[in-house]
From TrEMBL:
The keyword Transmembrane applies. It comes from Clostridium tarantellae. It comes from the Bacteria. GO terms for cellular component: plasma membrane. The chain crosses the membrane at residues 31-52, 64-83, 95-115, 122-140. Keywords: Membrane, Transmembrane, Transmembrane helix. The keyword Ribonucleoprotein does not apply. PANTHER family: INNER MEMBRANE PROTEIN YDCZ (PTHR34821), MEMBRANE PROTEIN (PTHR34821:SF3). InterPro entries: YdcZ. This is EamA-like transporter family protein.
Length: 144
């Protein structure tokens, strides 16, 4: 149950952040906003690391697949693309397409066991669910 609550909070925070970042970028620019977003995230994480992060092991970074160190770069790409999406097609449609893209990407990762994840077999139900979501976006976007 806790995982579901955290996922709901995460989704709400991402949607709100997307709008906040877009409105800020309207005033100060895309890359300036990205610097503020990533900079405040860095500072907040640094504070949390020094106050709560006592159980980590920095020595283990040597054994980590170097590909996994690109999370920060992906954060920059995510911030930029969400702002461009929200500004060009609006929050509801933009976030809907982003969510379908996230789900499809996660399904591919699961189906092929990419990045050391367990393979999860997909059935017709999963593909049908994705198709219904895509159809829902198309219906939502249709004008009368």
């Amino acid at each position: 149950m806790l995982g579901i609550i955290i996922a709901i909070i995460s989704g709400a925070a991402m949607s709100i952040q997307g709008v906040f970042n877009t409105r800020l970028s309207d005033k100060i620019g895309l890359w300036q906003t990205n610097v503020i977003v990533q900079g405040t995230a860095f500072l907040c994480t640094l504070i949390l690391l020094f106050t709560l992060g006592k159980n980590g092991n920095w020595q283990e970074i040597k054994s980590v697949n170097k590909l996994y160190l690109l999370g920060g770069l992906l954060g920059v790409i995510i911030t930029y693309t969400v702002m461009k999406t929200v500004s060009s097609i609006g929050p509801t449609c933009g976030i809907s397409i982003i969510l379908v893209s996230q789900l499809l990407t996660a399904a591919i990762i699961d189906a092929f066991g990419l990045f050391n994840t367990n393979k999860i077999k997909f059935s017709l139900n999963e593909f049908l669910g994705l198709a219904i979501m895509i159809i829902g976006i198309i219906i939502f976007k249709c004008k009368k």
